[in-house]
Amino acid sequence: MSDKAQINRPDPIRLSHNESFACPHQLTSLPDLNWSELCLNRYLKQEEGPLLPALARYSGYQATNIVLGNGSDELILNIIQALAGPGQGILIHPPTFSVYQKAARICRVAVHQVPLLDSFQLNTEEMIRAANQRKVDLIFICNPNNPTALALAEEDILRILDCTDCYVVIDEAYWEFAGNSFLKYLPHYPKLIILRTLSKAFACAGLRLGYLIADAGVRDAIRGVQMPFNLSSLTQCLGAYVIDNADHFANHIDQMLKLKQQLNAELNSLPGVSTRPSATNYLLIEVPDDPGQVVAELKRQGILVREVHQMDKRLKNMIRASVGTKAQNDQFVAVLRKALPNYGH
Ligand SMILES: Cc1ncc(COP(=O)(O)O)c(C=O)c1O
To answer: Most buried residue, 56, 171, 264, 327, by CB count within 10 Å?
Structure first.
């Protein structure tokens, strides 16, 4: 394709990263930042910036319980650096978010795996056995889970907290869409870590801002492996604005839920296509053709969705797609219909 043709090509419809379809400056006006107060000539430690107090107000916990990172991706790495370390191990429940494994590899930490049941719920007793018998320091539980989109049973997670002595990270990247957080259990479990992001419900993936809430001692250990000035002052000021205006930034959730319902119905009306229950802003979709080919054909037609079939044999017929705008979802369904040659006509 010539450069000119590429330039003239419309942007692809990006349903591959579980991002929000609603761009913040379309949701609300951008902040009137006071540039002189921002002091770009100065370093700004997270302990001295406006974001920790904003998150303390928002969460009901103290600033001394909170750590900020460049996305929750970075915090996953920091948690492993601080609480596991070379020669030790983490426990995950595949299929789940790939960054836990990647971060463990970077830290030379062993990864133990107890796959989800066929219901995509936790294999609780097996996880407890693995945590207690192997050298596991840290358990990652992704709730709701990516890529299965399902919320995990609360009693299963509580049982793991009750029956193991490991640090347990609950990754709540999508909790706002499901509405059930484990934050309330923090006072009862000193080794519990709640991990969150502004990338999903707050529609700010580009800001690269994640935070965790934990016991103050655990917080100190994790903060201890970070660089002193790990977050830019611009990120901290914008982040504080987003949190203080949470109602504006997260006000597309109801709209997303309606759009998800419509998209769900339309996908399920396609012959051979079905969706799994979703507690998130994306859908796990079973397709009747080779999902690799379906993803490639969608891409050729300008629709980006995520391949997940290599992750787990139970996902072998699946693709993952975020909920887009009405127009994007309509386009996705129309192209998917055509991309299923044996079924769509
Ligand atoms: C479960 C889960 N955790 C964490 C992240 C990373 O979020 P962030 O943008 O804060 O790094 C994602 C991103 O897709 C995710 O799905």
So the answer is: 171
